[in-house]
Design a protein that fits this description.
533 residues, alpha+beta, 12 helices
Amino acid sequence: MRRTLADSSFLRIYALLAVALLLTFGVTLLGLAMVDQVRREHYREQLVEPPMRLLTAWIDSLPDAKREAWLASRAEQLDMTLRRVTLDDLSLNYFSRSRLERGRVLVLPRGAHGWRLLRRLPRGENLLEVDVMSLSERQLRGLAELLAEWLAQTTGETRRARLERVAGDSMPLQLSESPPEGLDARQLARLAAGEVVIRLRPGRWSMAMYCLLPGSAPQTRWLTIGPLQAFEPLPAALPLLVLLLGVLAAIIYLIMRRLEARMARLELAATRIAGGRLDTRVKVESGDFLGRLGMAFNGMAAQVQSLLRAQQDMIRAVSHELRTPVARIRFAVQMVEDMTDDPAIRRQLEGVDGDITELDELIDEMLSYARLGSETANGAELETSPVDCRAMAERVIEALRPLHRTIRIELEAGPDVEVQAEPRYLQRALQNLVANACRHARSRVVIRLQSEPQRVRLEVEDDGPGIPVAARSEVFKPFARLDDSRSGGYGLGLSIVQKVMAWHGGSVMVDASAALGGARFTLLLPRRNATPA
């Protein structure tokens, strides 16, 4: 049936990715705008930090009676509003108050282009408040003249200490004994006349100011302020690309993780069916391609389960139907045996009786195999209990030793080898392996029991001819018999062992016995908690 575009899971994935990309783009732009705003505010704080240090340091050096007059004169000189305020006069939040208490400058917006600058005075609880409506050339010159006048009040190391006190990362300050480089003759003349020279550097988007300290010693008379770097907005291309890729990768991961989880459930169901749990089904959540795959998988599992159940029903029916004619044949043989005393005829009848016994044993094996297959296919739960492996192995030896008197059956077991299992089926599996080993051993069979942290290991070794490597995967198939090295039996014993182990969640494998030279069959059973009553 042809699918429409609306049913395509991949189309929905692509649509989700497109929407996610648009959302990521919007969030990225918003994030970049916020980061750029934070950078801009940080730049402003660094830019006004040195002038505010200069003003507060100068006010702090004045007597309290002269401070108001000094603020009034400097406000006129700088075309700014300068006044002293207290922290209680201001309506500030916790973070702004903390910044002021640490001696930092607080920059608050005032109007469209104005700033409100606040800094705590070095001594006392008062703050210096400066209102700046716009930063003009007059204000820049006034700040440079103010700094030069303040530095000219001292000489030598005291002057340099004052310079370092107000200098900042965004506003380098330097005193030199020679005129600044890069100025023409007109600028040098203006500088010698006591003016402040402002030099712009368009290529670097920066500005520097130069002035001559009045009455200064030759080695510290030229003051250079700057260069002051202009604010550069954050380049949007690279951060935007990195952020988009990161968020997009996270969204794709979440989408693909859901698909992967659904595929993992399909894989788990396939593994359970391969282990004999044919009642396993996949939960179908939608009608997309994974949902249709799940429905097809469920149909396949139901068909396999139905075929296997029909096969097992046929085996049971045939086995039961064979019991009646076999019983009649045995009765007839016994009647004939009672009617004759001829030794030759009795020998023939004994052979027939042996064949009938083999038929009975074969029918029992077929019924056991069919019963195990039915229970595992229908998902029947094991009724487990603690099994003492040593005691179980001793019971197997007692049952088989009278049937194989020429074979020495030995048991090597560690202390406390116990496993949680179905006792009857586990003993049947071990007994099948030991019986198989006795049929093909020359003189010796060894049963080894080992307890490991995560599992229990049961090994059965013999000193017989062994099993060729190429045939080791075939011996567990129903009715499989090796003509050359491992003949005898009915070909169902090892198949029953494999089904028992699969039902217990364990495994069986065969390799060569290093100690005896024959075959070694190993049962591996996982440790598990006891089934609650």
